[in-house]
Structure formats: C-alpha cells, structure tokens
Amino acid sequence: MELLFILLAVVVICGVVVAPAMRRRRALQDTVHGAGSACDPAGAHGFVPPERLDLRLPGPDPDLLAAVTEARRTQDWKPAAELLARTDAASAPELRWQRVQTLAGAAVRELAEAPGTGGMWLRHWRVVAPEDAGGAAVQAEFLVQQALRDPSSQDYRMILEEARTVCAEAAALAPEDVVPSIVELGVARGLGASEAEFQSLWETVAARAPQHMGAHLVALRYWSANWHGSQDQAEAFAQRVAAAAPKGSLLPALPLFAVYDHLPDVQLVRGLFQSVVVREAIEAAQYAVAHAPADHPVLPHVRHLLLWFLVRAERYGEALEQVRAVDGHIGAVPWTYEQDPVAAYTAYRAMAVSGWESGRN
User: Fold this and answer.
1) Which run of H or of E encompasses 14?
2) Per-residue CA distances from 328 to 25, 124, 231 (Å)
C-alpha cells in the first residue's frame, strides 16, 4: 500500500501513454488521416456526437459509470466499493474483472491529469477499508496499469513487485475471486516471467475460469511477439482455445485479437484484409458475437475490434451493424491505443456509413 501512496503523491509521471510495440503500425492512423475531411454522420443517423463519446467504458454500464463519475467528482470511494461488493465474484467474474479494470484505469487517468492529487479516492479507500477485497483488487490493477505507462521508469519493477504483493492480499481477502489471479498474469508479463512460470500461473487461472474472455485476452498478450512469445505461439494459443470453446462463449473471437496483435507495420500485401486468415478470424468473431449473451461484459470489446476489421475489409454493411451496437462508448481496442481515440473511431464510423450508403459491401 505504501507504493500506492508514493504514486499518488509524486509529481514525476510520464505525460505520454507508452503503447505496446504493436501500436506503431500505421494502418489506423493512415485511415484516420485519409478520412479527416469526411463528414461524421452522427446527426443523420442518430449516432452520438464526437464530443459525447465516452472514453471510459467499452459499453454501457450505468452503475459503473455512476461510481466512476462520483469518485472523480467528490473523491468518494464508497460507491465504487459498494458496486464491487454487489458484483459477485463467483457468478459474475467477467463483470467484476471489467469493473476492476475500469476503476483502476480511472484512477490512473486522474493521476496523469493531476500528478500528486489525482485519484486520491483510491488511496482513501485503501486507508479507510484495508480489508475490502474490491479495493485491494483495484489497487493491484492500478499498479499494473501505472507501471505499463512507462516501462523505462526506474520504478517499473518496484511497482510491479508491489502489485504482486497486493494481488496476494486481494486473493486472501476474497479466495473465491479470480480477478486478483488475472491481474497477476499482467504482473508476470511485465516482470518477464519465464514461460514455465507463466504457464503454471495461467493453468491455475484457466482451471478456475475456463471461459473467462478477459483472462484469455491478458494471457494472449504474454505469448505475442510484442512481449515474450511469437506470432506462431499467440495464434496457436488463440486457435486452440477457440476450437475448444462451447457455444455461447466469446472465446472463438480470440484469434481476431491475435491477428490484430501481429499485423505488419506497413501493409504491402494487397487484399490483406480479404485474406483467408483474416476472413476466418472475422467470421469466428461474428459467430461468437451472435451466440454470446447480449449482456456479456466483454462483448463490446469484440464488437469494437470487429468494426475495425470489417471496415478494413470493406464489409461496410456488417461494420455498420457493429457501429449501431457499440456507438456511444469507445473505451476499447483499437481506439484506446490512439492519441486521439475519438478521431479514430469517428473516422471508421464515417467510412462504415459512407461505404454502406454507396453500396460498397
């Protein structure tokens, strides 16, 4: 907990979000620049105007939004604590993971905006209620996200080691909650755990939550070429998981994330997004979306990435279906990796509409 206090008090914080190496690809930026003069169709189609797009969440969660808003407005942590207390770890592990992620991210953003004072509600939460399992889980995720903002920082490893300690505290406070173990996957990735060490930790998580999409997304990052694996390892992991997934699971969409993670920086192959590999990943994700519960907490994440791929593949009618499903919230990949998420999302939204209107599908 001491390191949390330091992080919330120290002014020296990197002002620029350091994205993973995969974000150096130019595909999305080139598209945004090319569509810069396009008219955003918000008004004509009833879409949310750019200034009202919500960067905090991937999809609607009014209770979570209220807690995040109250924490920022009044620095009161109690609504967040009460929300997590109501989010059952056993029956709603995906929702709990999503909410922990969002609350931690909110504190990270506040701290970046106001070094030394931002996100003080999280510090108060941990001081006043140190035995609150939700607060411990949020602190652990906060530390992971904070460390990954600047991997070159001299405090990087110290922050991640503290995150590991807090993960253990959170797990002890709520043994039935798998979220601390999922957060620990991020710690292990950041600390460069060996493949054997990571595999052991992953097997523990997978045994407890075999259909947890969020956990699989965290694990996929470890095996990607941008971290400690390779394209072959990441794609093999994603394909193996997808093939074994039961109907109603979101896991068939995992290969789409693996493909995205390994797109080339410069796309020299004409028709890359019409290739067999990309087409099959898109269709598997569409299958997952069609059969998953409509209120699945991670469903918006899949829809946002589908939107990106479908526009790139010039399947505009299908892309527009995803726009209609997610419009209003853009706190998801790929938009969150961009310096201007709103510009990126609205450019793709405009292209989906214009492509569909012109009959280019």
Assistant:
1) none
2) 26, 31, 33
Q: What angle do CA 95, 99, 105 make, to 5 degrees?
A: 145
pLDDT tens digits for the chain (361 residues)?
Answer: 555 544 544 433 333 333 333 443 444 455 544 444 345 655 677 899 999 999 999 999 999 999 999 999 999 999 999 999 999 999 999 999 999 999 999 999 999 999 989 999 999 999 999 999 999 999 999 999 999 999 999 999 999 999 999 999 999 999 999 999 999 999 999 999 999 999 999 999 999 999 999 999 999 999 999 999 999 999 999 999 999 999 999 999 999 999 999 998 756 556 889 899 999 999 999 999 999 999 999 999 999 999 999 999 999 999 999 999 999 999 999 999 999 999 999 999 999 999 998 876 6
- Dihedrals phi, psi of 116, to nearest 5 degrees: 95, -25
Read off the tokens for 186. Answer: 């991020």
What are the Cα distances from residue 30, in Å, to 24, 53, 334?
Answer: 12, 22, 14
Contact 80, 120 (CB under 8 A): no
Residue 329 pairs in a beta bridge with: 54
Tell me if 136 sits within 8 A of 180, measured CB to CB.
Answer: yes
* Ordered alpha helix ranges (H), the chain: 2-9, 27-34, 42-45, 62-74, 78-86, 93-113, 120-128, 133-149, 156-173, 179-191, 195-208, 213-222, 231-244, 254-261, 276-291, 299-312, 316-326, 341-357
**CA distances from residue 134 to 186, 217, 299, 337 in whole angstroms, order as listed:** 18, 21, 23, 27
Closest CA to 179 of 264, 288, 84, 248: 84
Read off the amino acid at residue 311: V
Burial 180-203 (b: 16+ CB within 10 A, else e): bbbbbbbbbbbbebeeeebeebbe
Which CA distances in Å does 257 have to 114, 275, 282, 284, 294? 33, 16, 10, 11, 20
